[in-house]
Amino acid sequence: MKEIKKKILKKIDKEMQLIHYGSVIFGVGLFIAAVISLIATYGTLSPMGARIATGVLIMFGIVVGLINVTSKETISFLIASIVIVMLIGPFMSSIIQTFAIDQTGNTSKLLGEIFKNLIGLIVPAALIVSLKTIFVTAKDE
Questions:
Q1: For residue 109, what pLDDT band results from cuts at 50, 70 and 90?
Q2: Rounded to whole angstroms, how far apart are CA atoms 45 and 13?
Q3: ∠ at Cα 30 (135, 64), nearest 5°?
Q4: Which of 39, 99, 106, 124 has its CB 3.0 to 4.6 Å from that of 61, i.e. a possible disulfide?
Q5: Are 88 and 115 in contact (CB under 8 A)?
Q6: Helix (H) or strand (E) holding 106
Q7: Which one has a higher pLDDT value, 99 or 43?
Q8: Count of C-beta atoms within a 10 Å radius of residue 51
Q9: For the residues 10-25, what does the mean pLDDT come to?
């Protein structure tokens, strides 16, 4: 009985370490998204640099989807992801209209870059989590 408990505790400990790494990766991904947005708005980011940056965000999103979201968090993560993706456009339009932000200015461009990069991080994670959920659901006949 003690051996079984030790194995279970060891497995739980490994899973918690992965979840911790996933949280760190998600935080780093958010930081990278913000930095890329600032560089794209106020600096010079070449088209190739933008592609590489988007690829990095997508990779971070995939890793987050693979190791950070537990089975208990799946539904809330997917709902939050859907809400973010669906409401970013109307939210951005509302901010621009409410505060009379010039749509050709840097502020509008910065908001667009931030939202674009957030989507580049969150959507791959949501796709991975939804595919994992579909696989588990299909497996549990």
A1: confident
A2: 42
A3: 20
A4: 124
A5: yes
A6: helix 106-139
A7: 43
A8: 10
A9: 67
Rg, C-alpha atoms of the chain? 19
Q: Which residue has the tokens 């991904």?
A: 29
Q: How far apart are CA 113 and CA 43, in angstroms?
A: 13
Written as six digits, the tokens of 25 are: 């990766």
Q: Tell me whether residue 121 is exposed, middle or buried, using C-beta atoms within 10 angstroms of its C-beta: 0 to 12, 13 to 18, 19 or more.
A: buried
Q: Are 37 and 100 in contact (CB under 8 A)?
A: no
Encoded tokens for 64: 């987050």
CB contact at 8 A, 113 and 36: yes
**Which one-letter amino acid corresponds to residue 79?**
I
Give the pLDDT of residue 36: 92
Give the range among 32-46, 76-90, 97-111 with minimum mean pLDDT. 97-111
The contacts of residue 109 (CB under 8 Å, 6+ apart) are 40, 41
- Are 101 and 95 in contact, with CB atoms under 8 Å apart? yes
The tokens describing 70, both together, are 């537990």
Distance CA 84, CA 68 (A): 18
